[in-house]
Every structure is written in C-alpha cells, then in structure tokens.
Design brief:
Blueprint lengths: L3 H4 L16 H13 L5 H10 L1 H4 L12 H10 L2 H15 L7 E8 L13 E7 L4 E7 L6 H11 L6 E4 L6
Parallel strand pairs: 1-4
Antiparallel strand pairs: 1-2, 2-3
Length: about 170
C-alpha cells in the first residue's frame, strides 16, 4: 500500500521558494487529519495540530513547528483543486475496499458558510458515501449556475463503483 506522502506527491507547491517555511506534505497531512476529525475552520485545524503534535510527528517532520491558521489557509487555497481531488480519490481508493453490492449513497450538499451571511449558497458539492467504510469515497464541486444533475455523472466517472448499489435522492431521477 502506498503511503499518504506517495499519494499526494503529485500536488505542485504553489509557494515561491523563499516562503516555504513548512513542508508541503506536512501541511496537507495535518489538514487532512484535522478535517477527518471534524475540524472545518482554519483556527480549528491549527488548534487540532497544536494539540496532536506528538501524534503528528510520528508521520510528518514539522521542522518549524505547526503552521499558523493563516498559513494553512493560504496554502490550501492556492493548491490546484483538481490535482488535490485526484490525489484524494486515489488515496481513499487505496484504503477503502468497495465490494460488490455495497451501498454507495450519492448526495449533494451546500458547504456551510459558503454564501454571503450564510444565506446565498456559493459552493455545492456532490459526494459518494460508502456505508460499509463509513467514509466519503469522493466529491465533485457542482459548477456555477448548474445543479447536482450535471455533477453526478462526473463524480461517478472518477470512482470505480462496479457492482455497487448506488442510491440517489429525488433530483437524480430526472
């Protein structure tokens, strides 16, 4: 099985050389770990990393300590989302066994706080949830001015769900 580092080695570092205080893989790993554990704000990710430093150092170096929430935000916001998505899906596929007749649910959601004053949705995501593995196998951002119907086939193309039972809410029946 490939390591996390090997799966995410395809991510290009968007930073200029003189600003690279923290390693690319360190920021990706600690962010991914924090998000998996339920963190969804930059400050929460930094706090998680501060509290889990000894555990994180078993897997990543952190030669300059924990990056600030602003550094994490700038870095994650600057990386190529398509490359990140491809690496994430490959990584999840390597750790999650999807078997025949497994139920995979396709669901669309608006990202929390993605709109102005949380009223107007800016980002919608369609995700594939594996009930057997209890994790998201992959996600696809719904294009602006479109709905889930156009994103669902694109998400399914990214995943190998041969033999699985796919469930979808009412919008998928159109």
């Amino acid at each position: 099985m490939q390591s996390f580092t090997e799966h995410f080695s395809g991510i290009s570092d968007p930073r200029i050389e003189r600003t690279k205080k923290h390693k690319l893989i360190d920021i990706l790993f600690l962010t991914m770990a924090a998000v998996i554990c339920g963190c969804d704000e930059w400050r929460e990710i930094e706090l998680y990393a501060d509290n889990k430093q000894s555990w994180l150092r078993k897997y990543i170096e952190l030669p300059n300590g924990i990056p600030s929430h602003d550094t994490i935000n700038r870095f994650i916001s600057a990386i190529d989302p398509a490359a990140m998505q491809a690496c994430f899906i490959q990584w999840v596929a390597s750790i999650a066994a999807v078997s025949e007749e497994e139920v995979v649910s396709i669901e669309g959601k608006r990202l929390c706080n993605s709109g102005q004053d949380s009223k107007e949705a800016i980002v919608h995501i369609v995700s594939a949830w594996s009930s057997a593995n209890h994790l998201v196998l992959g996600s696809y951002k719904v294009e602006d001015k479109h709905n889930e119907i156009t994103a669902i086939p694109k998400l399914l193309e990214l995943l190998d769900l041969s033999g699985c039972i796919i469930t979808i809410d009412a919008i998928g029946w159109q």
